[in-house]
Amino acid sequence: MHSKLNNKLNDEQVPSRWARLCQSDFIYHFRRDKVAIISFALFMAMLVAALLSPWLAPFNPYDLATIDILDSELPPAWLEMGDTRFWLGTDVQGRDIFSTILYGSRVSLIIGLSAVALQLIIGIMVGLSAGYLGGRADSLLMRVADVQLSFSTMMVAIIVSAVFQATLGADFYGQYAVLMLVIIIGLAEWPQYARTIRASVLAEKKKEYVEAAKVMGFKPLRIMFRHILPNCLSPILVISTVQVANAIMSEAALSFLGLGMPVDQPSLGSLISMGFSYIFSGSWWITAFPGLYLVLLVLVINLLGDWLRDVFNPKFYKG
């Protein structure tokens, strides 16, 4: 009887994980920062809209049966000659701009998040190995990262993309364009993670808990991934938000240059590229609305990244 009563009291005294999260400094600062709240709400709305685009979009830009060439270059609904069916207008193929933005943002977000995941995997492996092993392994891995950092990210992406298209053929590249762009952008920007993680590992591996793990006979891989890596997550989280925005911009730039998504698979970059040649002929909405959406998406991600950086650096946080 007493043991059951004690267990019940202990359960009532120990807060749940959700309660601890709600009472954490992270949530406290988040609730006090209006910019972070608005940015997070906008990002989640854009993410949900992108994921649910097949159900939210009025038209399917992939379905040729719903596209009429006679509807091409219709202005937004509130302008003269506009059609209420297409409230943001249509492109040169007669596709609804609003629908293509929703579908295109889904492609851009998939590429951005997947490319950052690839950067994260490569950067963690290289950064952990370089920082923990040290010596020649550290010098070799960091020199490789330095060589890649000496080149512009876009230049690396353009070269790799052009090589892929020339080697595999335009048809094969177009069929697997999403996968190719994830690989291209992921391979172009992993050194950012590697250098940051290496610096964190160099600081963490001198601490007592790492020495204790070594004394207990734990293998290096377990020490790196089970003990050191969890203490390096704060800078990784901050970098990831910035890198998602960079990856989306890289995809948009490559698509604009004709090295990204094909025209029949709209992303935000390919939509901007497709309408750019018509912007001076009066059909400004074909490029303007996807461009504004891209700017807003990148802006809210960067604002969240700036807020995370301030939260994890209390010396600079003024919230």
UniProtKB/TrEMBL annotation:
GO terms for biological process: transmembrane transport. GO terms for cellular component: plasma membrane. InterPro entries: BP-dependent_transpt_permease, MetI-like, MetI-like_sf, OppC_N. It is a multi-pass membrane protein. Residues 105-305 form the ABC transmembrane type-1 domain. Its main location: membrane. It is found in: Cell membrane. The keyword 4Fe-4S does not apply. This is ABC transporter permease. It comes from Oceanisphaera avium.
